[in-house]
Amino acid sequence: MENKKKIELYRSMLLIRHFEEKLTELCRIERKLPGMVILCTGQEAVAAGTCAALEKDDVIISNHRSHGHLLAKGAEPNTVMAEIFGKKTGCNKGKSGTLHIAVPEVNALCTTTVVGGGIPIAVGTAFAQQYKKRRQVTRCFFGNGAPDEGSFHESLNMAALWNLPVIFVCENNVYSGAQRMEEHTKVKDMAARAAGYAMPGVVVDGNDAEAVFKATAEARLRCLAGEGPTLIECKTYRWRGHGEADHQAYQPKDEIARWMERCPVKKIERELLAAGAISNQEISELEESIAKIVEDAVRFAEESPWPAPLKALDDVYV
Amino acid sequence: MQQITMGQAVRQALAEEMQRDPNVFLAGEGIGVGIHESPVMPTFGLLREFGPDRVKDTPVSEAAIAGLAVGASVLGLRPVVEVMFNPFFTLASDQIVNHAAKLRYLSGGKSSFPMVVRVKTGAGFGAGCQHSHNLEAWAAHCPGLKVVMPGTAADAKGLLKSAIRDDNPVVFIEDMGLYFFPTPVPEGEYTIPIGVADIKRPGRDVTVVTWSKMLGVAFKAAAILSKEGIEVEILDLRTLLPLDKEAIITSLKKTGRLVILHEATRTGGFGGEIAALAVDEAFSYLKAPVKRVTGPDIPVPFSPPLEQFYIPDEHQLVEAVKSVVL
After folding, report:
1. Is B131 an annotated catalytic residue?
2. Which of the 8 DSSP states describes residue B100?
3. Is residue B326's pLDDT more than 80?
4. Does residue B62 carry a catalytic annotation?
5. In the predicted model, what is the mean pLDDT of residues B215-231?
6. What is the pLDDT of residue A208?
7. Cβ partners under 8 Å of residue A58, min gap 6
8. What is the largest CA-CA distance in chain A?
9. At what angle do helices A44-52 and A3-24 cross, to 10 degrees?
10. Looking at chain A, which residue has its C-alpha nearest residue B112?
11. Subunit contact B72:A90, Cβ cutoff 8 A
12. Angstrom distance (rounded) from CA A153 to CA A151
């Protein structure tokens, strides 16, 4: 991977990290956020690595832990933050909140909180891309709980049968709700399930952004060559609970500490420093500029007006 | 006018819309080559006419079929997917209820989902309760959907063409009882607007609000009652969502009496919504209690006499009408 591209990847991960850490602060300390807050802290390499391998016209379908996916795909931090606050200026006018953000401007067409609910939709967007003979792909994110849903099975079977240009990304953060992987399935690797659909299944270190990028880029090429879908399992870890209201009683403290030592942001940072691609000074400057973007987004959200109550009636039908 | 069945009318609508708009495609179980291959079935011959890229026989995967429509429609295609029988709606329902109906709202009005889910329904085929179960009230309980349930071949054709051109998700429910009897259908291109009810028979004494296959039962009852000097006005809703409230209220202002007829079971049925509307918005015009003639609160039974017991008939309707007139 070229240094320039890798620095972009690092920047994307830094933005996600700062964004999520700010949300923890806003939620737990300042208590400013309404409703559920579900964060992807520690999983930045999956969002950034996969999105770095996509073109702007490629589609993403996301799940409840979506902030990283959206920001990495190019969503505007201000309007995403305002949506999380439930403000009028939010990218969905306050209709979706943190859980269901859609940013059609960057082809982030659906975020769904129904576990596995986005997978059939990704089959549909990939079908449209194939039908219109476009050189585009769909990338569908879900966690390690989703492959236990029937929608996963139906969708992967159909996508493989029709050679649809879709990349299924299982973001395995060890937990499905409060259940560890070994408590909800007997398979060791979710990617093994791909064999049941005659589809390539790939396991990658989900904390290695470059490895995630490479696996996605290869899967994308297979899609464009008409060879159909790939299931990529990115093994990573959820630093926070399911949501910020989760006390993480089921997550051993030493396990969290071990994974924090394997921080994906620090990993790429070390690699860039070792390659001489970036200096400590440049890292400080980058962090500063990212922190400012996030501060600006919070200010934008806080200063934005609430939607007028009657606006609840809009946008149901075309 | 041509004399065709509702299945053939649906087929004409599909073929005409596919010729008109290359973004229209079909998907479903056995819609290309089916186990019930017959000229009366709505997708008969379309695979030969339009090819396998536009007529997609799918695996038996209702959730994926419905999701296929959701995803394809947000990128501008106009999918018309089929859920073989209404009870299988349950298997597709996450995609229809949580996604098709809500994603536009969740996008803040930025995205649209111009898709049609065709659903076959109706008791009377000895298919039992897991193939026969009218669930239109479920769909009508989901803001964001439109729900269409035609009672004639002519309406089915015009309404389906409108549904395909509509930018919202439409659940289009076809009673298979109407697949086998030819009725007049206009020649050539026409559409019928969604959300507009139709007075199928004007009458001064009682308004019978009905839809789908029960329209025929209403006509039989009206003929019997007419001989006894009672003139029934038959209002065919055609669309449940959005509901043509004005048409119902206008008819009630004229007749002052309301009987609702539907095949679906009684409790939680859509008839309750019509009754509530009459009481809320037309109470002062009512001269008698509102009555419902519906399927009883049981699963559709198998044995022919049991199944016939389930399906509302003209005699029950005659009795209900007389009870509010006399």
Report:
1. yes
2. I
3. no
4. yes
5. 98
6. 98
7. A107, A136, A137, A138, A139, A220
8. 56
9. 140
10. A318
11. no
12. 5
CA–CA separation, B326 vs A28, rounded Å? 69
Encoded tokens for B81:
């997917």
Residue of chain A whose Cα is closest to the Cα of B55? A131
Q: Closest to B99 (Cβ–Cβ): which among A95, A121, A317?
A: A121
- What pLDDT digit, counting tens, does each position of A288-297 carry? 999 999 999 9
Compute the average pLDDT of residues B86-100.
Answer: 96
Half-sphere exposure in the Cβ direction for B140 (13 Å, CA)? 24
Which residues of A are less than 8 Å from B68 in CB distance? Answer: 120, 123-124, 127, 158
Q: Could you tell me which residues come within 8 angstroms of residue B48 by beta carbon, excluding any fewer than 6 positions away? A: none
- Identify the CATH assignment for A3-302 out of 1.10.10.10, 3.40.50.970, 3.60.10.10, 3.40.1160.10: 3.40.50.970
**Gyration radius of chain B over CA positions:** 19
DSSP conformational letter for A287:
H
What mean pLDDT comes out for the span B241-255? 98
Domains in chain A: boundaries: 3-302
pLDDT digits (tens, 9 = 90+) for A273-286: 999 999 999 999 99
Sort strands B116-121 and B78-83 into parallel, antiparallel or unpaired.
parallel
Dist. CA B288–CA B168, nearest whole Å:
38
Higher-pLDDT residue of B56 and A35 is B56
Inform me whether the C-beta atom of residue A139 falls under 8 Å from chain B C-beta atoms.
no
Report chain B residues whose CB lies below 8 A from the CB of A91. Answer: 108
Each domain of chain B, given as residue ranges in start order, spans 2-185, 198-325
Is there a contact between A318 and B104 if contact means CB atoms under 8 Å apart?
yes
pLDDT at B33: 87
Q: How confident is the model at residue A30 (pLDDT cuts 50, 70, 90)?
A: confident
Q: Do A158 and B64 touch (CB under 8 A)?
A: yes
pLDDT of residue A29: 82
Contacts of B99 in chain A (CB under 8 A): 110, 112, 114, 117, 121
- Residue whose token pair is 């803040």: B108
pLDDT tens string A121-147: 999 999 999 999 999 999 999 999 999
**CATH number belonging to domain B198-325:** 3.40.50.920
Question: In this complex, which of A104, A127, A155 lies closest to B110 when CB atoms are compared?
Answer: A104
CA atoms of A128 and B71, how far apart (whole Å): 8
The verdict on ipTM greater than 0.90 is yes
Task: Choose the catalytic residue: B29, B82, B131, B136.
Answer: B131
User: Which of B59, B61, B98 is nearest residue A117 as measured by Cβ atoms?
Assistant: B98
User: Which chain A residues are closer than 8 Å to B103 by Cβ?
Assistant: 102, 110
Question: What end-to-end distance do the CA atoms of chain A give, in Å?
Answer: 44
What is the side-by-side strand order in the sheet with A166-172?
Answer: A108-111, A59-62, A138-143, A166-172, A230-235, A201-205
In A, minimum Cα distance to B53 occurs at A131
Contacts of B111 in chain A (CB under 8 A): 102, 104, 109
What CATH number has the domain spanning B2-185? Answer: 3.40.50.970
Q: A88, A39, A84: which is closest to A64 by C-alpha?
A: A39
Task: Answer yes or no: is pLDDT of A148 > 90.
Answer: yes
CB-based contact A133:B113 (threshold 8 Å) = no
pLDDT value of position A31: 85
Please indicate whether, in this complex, the C-beta atoms of A317 and B68 are within 8 angstroms of each other.
no
